[in-house]
Amino acid sequence: MDEIKNKLWAVGGGKGGVGKSIVTLMTGVSLARLGNKVILVDADLGGSNLHTLVGIRYPKYTLADFISKKVETINEVILSTPIENMNIICGADDILGMANPKYTQKTRLLNHLKKLDADFILLDLGAGTSFTTIDFFLYAPNKIVVLTPQITSIQNAYGFIKASLFRYLNDVFSKDDQALALIKSTSAPVDGEGLDSIGKLFEAFKALDEGRREMLLNCINDLKIKLIVNMLKDAREKNVSNIVKSVAKNYLGITIEDLGVVQFDNILSSSINNMAAFLTRKREGLAGINFYGIAQDIIKSSQKATPLSAGAPETPAAR
Ligand SMILES: Nc1ncnc2c1ncn2[C@@H]1O[C@H](COP(=O)(O)OP(=O)(O)O)[C@@H](O)[C@H]1O
Ligand SMILES: [Mg+2]
Predict the structure, then answer these.
(1) Which of 64, 71, 156, 200 could pair with 92 in a Cys bridge, judged by C-beta atoms 3.0 to 4.6 Å apart?
(2) What are the structural domains, with CATH classification, of the chain?
């Protein structure tokens, strides 16, 4: 179990076009070049395109073959890429309904994912906040949210984090009607009657027992998210991560960390139609250096021993 804790990383972010796939790919390339065995998984079941980025036009096998049980094990759908040490499991958007696999299909997939033989498994998630996307994100012990300095991307990143927290709370308290009613009043849009912050939800939970309050607190502290600000054109823009961090702290009680920034790189955007050639040329470029830094931090954090006790969790303040 501990192993999966270190190796499975999900890359989400809510908005399309912010660079989730590029971040997954380039982080994977850097991890592989640093000597790690990497598997990229295209979990964007509605708009998969990670295979195109590694130069695979028509994947021989995709996740669809696994989900529809055409193959027995997930190992059979792993394909190689032009990068040594880096393999890929291609996405599947060609099959009706695949973007919303059934619960049992999802569970089987997640169970197989954790058995994959790799140092790092990177999940490239789809845009939006569909339950499937959020469930992949919640399942992965390591969670990355990608955003750009654009205001819409900041909003979507926060929306994605909020949706994840509430999906998690709904799941944990799924059999507790009293708690669910309170959670629902917090997640509903503010209309004068709703509770608009986790702090207020925590206050409302005082009407319930100590055990459930503690559960709520544990959920909030469990959700550990790291941010990557992508397509930076000006160093000052990296402050956008502070906006997400402070809003998430103030309204959701979640502590978010920075994983790094990636500069806007003309070579990267102009190579998009031939990424495979770009990758094998091994030219670093501005963004390439950023991705090495990110990969190094990921390696470091995966080597960090999990502390025995993380100390007393903080109580979120009502606002
Ligand atoms: N750091 C960057 N510099 C320049 N262009 C980038 C950068 N990151 C992503 N892009 C470009 O943005 C577009 C969208 O990226 P993509 O990874 O497909 O987004 P998403 O997966 O979030 O939808 C691509 O055309 C890609 O080349
Ligand atoms: Mg993508």
Answers:
(1) 64
(2) 2-303 (3.40.50.300)
